Amino acid sequence: MEFNQITLEMGDGWTLLTINRPTVMNALNQETLREIEQALDQVEAQKKTGALILAGAGEKAFVAGADISELRQLQSASDAERLASWGQRLFSRLEEMPIPVIMAVNGYALGGGFELALSGDILLASERAQFGLPEIHLGVMPGYGGTQRLVRLVGKNTAKYYAMTGERMDADTALQLGIVQKVVPSADLLQEAKGLAAQLTAQAPIALRYIKQTINQGIETDLRTGLQLEASSFGLLFHTQDRMEGMNAFLEKRKPSFRGE
Ligand code: CAA
C-alpha cells in the first residue's frame, strides 16, 4: 500500500512505522491518523511481525502534536469531540496490539505526540527528546489520552503539573519519572529500537501477549481482580508448546526456540 504521510518498513524481527511530515515536525493531521490505521491493519494481517517500532522522520521531532492548522478549522464541539475520540481509539488500538510496541522518541514529543508515545509498551528516547503537553498554551487541553495515560504513570499532581503548565521535560526527567525506559545517543536510537524489537521477537509470543494484556488490564482494576487475571493467564500458558520448549531448553542447557504455539 502507498502512503503519503508515513512509511512502513519491515526487517528481521521488527516493523518500523515512521511518521513522515518533517516540515511540520511530524504533526498528526487526519490523513496521518488514517494512514496509521491502515498500517496497523497491514501489520496485524501479517501474523509474524514481531515487534512494532514507531518513530518520527527527521532530526528534530518525534511528533509535535495534532496538526494545529487543521485543529483551527474545526467548527463545533462535536467535530472536536469526534476527532478526539478517533485519536483515542487509534492510540488504544496501539496500546492493545498483541505484539510489543516500542516508541523511538528522537525529538519533540508534544501534545498528541506525547500521547502517542504514551500508548507504547516501551519508550526509548534520544538524549534530545523533549516531552510535554502544551495544549494549555493553545487554550485547550490534551485530547488523545494525555490526561488519562500520564496520570497512570506519574501520579495525579505530576500529571496536573505538566498538563497545567505546558512545561516540557527532557529525556532524563522522563526517565526519572518512569515514562521512558532508556535514554540513548541520538545516532543509536533506531539501532537500539530494532535490537530491542528483535530481542522481544525471540521471546515466547503468547507469553509476551499475556504479559502485556495482564498488565494493561490489571492496572485498570483492583489488586484482587488483577491477581486473578494473572493466575488465569499463567495457567493458560501451560497449554502452550512454547512453555515445554522453554522449560526443556533450560534443563537441557540450550537456547529455546519459540514458535508461538
Ligand atoms: N501543527 C502544525 N504545524 C506545526 C506543529 C503542529 N503541532 N508543530 C510545528 N509545526 C510547524 C510550524 O508551524 C512550522 O511551520 P512553518 O515552517 O510553515 O512556519 C514548522 O512546523 C517548524 O516549527 P517551528 O518553526 O515552530 O520550529 P521550532 O524548532 O522553532 O519549534 C516546536 C518546534 C517546539 C515543536 C514548535 O513547533 C511547537 O511548539 N509546535 C507546537 C506544539 C504543540 O502545541 N502541540 C500540541 C498540538 S495540539 C494537540 O496535540 C491536541 C491533542 O492533544 C490531540
TrEMBL record:
<protein>
    <submittedName>
        <fullName>Short chain enoyl-CoA hydratase</fullName>
    </submittedName>
</protein>
<dbReference type="Pfam" id="PF00378">
    <property type="entry name" value="ECH_1"/>
</dbReference>
<dbReference type="GO" id="GO:0016836">
    <property type="term" value="F:hydro-lyase activity"/>
</dbReference>
<keyword id="KW-0456">Lyase</keyword>
<dbReference type="InterPro" id="IPR001753">
    <property type="entry name" value="Enoyl-CoA_hydra/iso"/>
</dbReference>
<comment type="similarity">
    <text>Belongs to the enoyl-CoA hydratase/isomerase family.</text>
</comment>
<dbReference type="InterPro" id="IPR014748">
    <property type="entry name" value="Enoyl-CoA_hydra_C"/>
</dbReference>
<dbReference type="InterPro" id="IPR029045">
    <property type="entry name" value="ClpP/crotonase-like_dom_sf"/>
</dbReference>
<dbReference type="GO" id="GO:0006635">
    <property type="term" value="P:fatty acid beta-oxidation"/>
</dbReference>
